[in-house]
Amino acid sequence: MLGRTYDREVCSAARALEVAGERWSLLILRNAAFAGMTRFTEFQTSLGLAPNVLAARLELFVAEGLMRVTDGEGPGGYELTEKGRDLVPALVALTQWGDRWAAPHGAPIAYEHRGCGGPVRHALLCERCSKELGAADVVARPTEHMEAALARRGRRPNKPRG
Amino acid sequence: MLGRTYDREVCSAARALEVAGERWSLLILRNAAFAGMTRFTEFQTSLGLAPNVLAARLELFVAEGLMRVTDGEGPGGYELTEKGRDLVPALVALTQWGDRWAAPHGAPIAYEHRGCGGPVRHALLCERCSKELGAADVVARPTEHMEAALARRGRRPNKPRG
Fold it and tell me: Is residue B129 within 8 angstroms of chain A, CB to CB?
């Protein structure tokens, strides 16, 4: 298998999943972002997951800069950084996919606009013509950074297994 | 650890990651969605990953309904279904996060509007007031389906480990 360097350089989406894609990670981030949870015991009670798993996830989030440890009175808590909060749109997008395709009993969570209470949805917008786009309207183009990444990869070749 | 049922019922985002969050999965879906790839050998050559890993991912995508096997002339190919293509906005959202926070050498891929060539971005919109929202403007509310899911969970208790 190619190393972490490959994913990091050549696919930003894969890199996002490296830090947020592990089992339970999204649920923890969701409870921090939308339910305002900060305490270890709040996450643990709400999710019912093993303390050692929760501790490992929180530790990774802090190491990766998605959360910071707060030191108010009593035991410390965990709060999202800007980097962590910036995952919210991806969370909403993944949730809406899951609601549509993988929630046979109906969507368990509804996202709402804090200001007016309206339902929130995600969209793809063109920054030039301002149109809202469907999936088929989007193309991906490698940038000059892709070429540089591939050149770096060429200088450090990793043989695929198999 | 709680079973798959838990994630499926209580977090649609976690369910999305169960089928698309494995290593290489996003890269394969990205190449299918944006580079028009359909052939096993195209995916294999472009990603340089082990054939057995690629075969396992494609098999899962077909089993989960993200891809279907096509039978044109020559060897069969794989194409995205509507369910698979519907992951595109989440892919764009994850990519934007990764570009901003985890691409020290610059974004390797640019998403463009097929029609006018403008840059594409992912946004959160309020369906009631039509405003574009930031992460802090979004709140999550459990629906009646959450209550039902928790009730089902209560009828099938799973003890957390640890």
Answer: yes
Residue type, A80: L
CA–CA dist A71, A78 (Å, integer)? 9
Residue B75: predicted pLDDT:
64
Beta bridge partners of residue B52, listed in sequence order? none
- CA A129 to the chain's CA centroid: 28
Hunting for tokens 């009670």 — which residue is that?
A45
Measured CA angle at A93 (ends B106, A62), to 5 deg:
60
CA dist list (Å): B41 to B26, B48, B78: 17, 10, 11
Smallest CA–CA distance, residue B115 to chain A, in Å, is 7
* A151 touching chain B per CB within 8 A: no
Ordered mean pLDDT values, 10 residues apiece, chain B (162 residues): 42 74 82 89 88 94 94 78 93 90 84 95 96 92 78 51 36
The ranges of chain A with pLDDT < 50 are 1-9, 155-162
Give the C-alpha separation, A19 to A27, whole Å.
13
Question: What is the token pair recorded at B90?
Answer: 């989440």
Query: Residue B5's closest chain A neighbor by CA?
Result: A103
Cβ-in-10-Å burial (0-12, 13-18, 19+) of B90 comes to buried
Asked if A82 contacts B100 with a C-beta cutoff of 8 angstroms, the reply is no
Tell me if B85 and A11 make a contact (CB, 8 A cut-off).
no
Eight-state DSSP code of residue A24: T
Please give the helix or strand (H or E) that residue B100 lies within, else none: helix B88-101
Cβ within 8 Å of A, B 36-65: 48-53, 65
**How confident is the model at residue B111, as a pLDDT?**
93
What gap in Å lies between CA B138 and CA B63, rounded to an integer? 34
